[in-house]
């Protein structure tokens, strides 16, 4: 009897080991099958000589959203691409380190940047990379590139700042004043840490960037504060002029003294009275991840030809690149809503970071269109109680997923719409694919023929 029990126990043990090894094997295969390059899109931007590359992957093992600029200079591109490639490699290395875990959640990676015009040909690019993997703490870092497109070169801090003992003393005074005036950093600021940072023998001041109004110092967490995450301190150029090299004093003040063109304020669409819609057969078309300089424009043309209204859930960073398209979306009576600034999974972020993603996008939407975003759609539709409690606006998901990102066949997208759409449906599409434009050419006449009226998601909520 005992030998029989031992045999059964042995079989169970071997079975568990076998299941574990097979699970590990297939998970390893999936990780190794991640392509070196994701599906990339290259788009023109409003900034001369700067294109936008987006590389977004949504896989079972990980979510990855990478955005970076492309220039006309191969020399400049090589350095940016090398940085992006290395950040991507480190993330996949992090995934590999988790392969021994039998049960694990998907990992998330975001590489985004903000662009700050300095002069006609000089821009600051501030990259932020963030990753989160099951069992590991969130990893965050930043990298700054200041680019002179006309000269086809990168500008380093030594070109901009007079780095000597006298300048360090002035800088210590100015940074201390700015920290102590900051409501956000005043309590966590450490004079001792700032002094240590300023006088560190290997400090190359690579944490600075310029805008057309400020010299900005961006620090790592705990570098000059106690607990503040990536603090930034801005010194107005008028106050920081004496910190600059003679070359940059001339360049920036020549730019400052140029006559500025007055920009017309965006026109708000006329206020229309709400009509009773309870008796109507209605549907809301929604578009995520834009704006796109080509496809969003084509979609707007199609919607106009059918007198159809839609809702665009925009990415804040892309709004910054294509403000005129967002302005057109609003001026033609469509609804503009918030889809985060950099397409991060909100469920992996702290509350303050979720709010930062929302607030930055709201600011870009208002700056471009003069309109306020009425609602939010979290990236990937990822929502939990933390996300719900952080976001005060209505969170809008969808009832019909067309899977337009997954197929190049417009007829398959139409088939999903035909099968799943009913009165009050919210249809999910993405205005960053050419196939979506082609699918919309089929969807609009079909839904109109079925008697649907096209409304915004806010109007759907009134039903």
Structural class: alpha/beta
Tell me the β content: 15-25%
Query: In total, how many domains does the architecture comprise?
Result: 3
Distance between the termini: 70 Å
Q: Sum up the overall morphology in one term.
A: elongated
Q: Helix count, per DSSP?
A: 15
Mean of all residue-level pLDDT scores: 84
Placed side by side, the strands forming the largest sheet appear as 1-2-3-4-5-6-7
Q: According to CATH, what is the class of the largest domain? A: Alpha Beta
Major pleated sheet: 7 strands, mixed
Task: State the CATH architecture of the largest domain.
Answer: Alpha-Beta Barrel
What share of residues is helical? 25-40%
Q: What is Rg? A: 26 Å
Q: Which runs of at least 5 residues are low in confidence (pLDDT < 50)?
A: 18-38, 271-278
Would you count the extended β strands for me? 16
CATH homologous superfamily of the largest domain?
Glycoside hydrolase/deacetylase
The CATH topology name of the largest domain reads: TIM Barrel
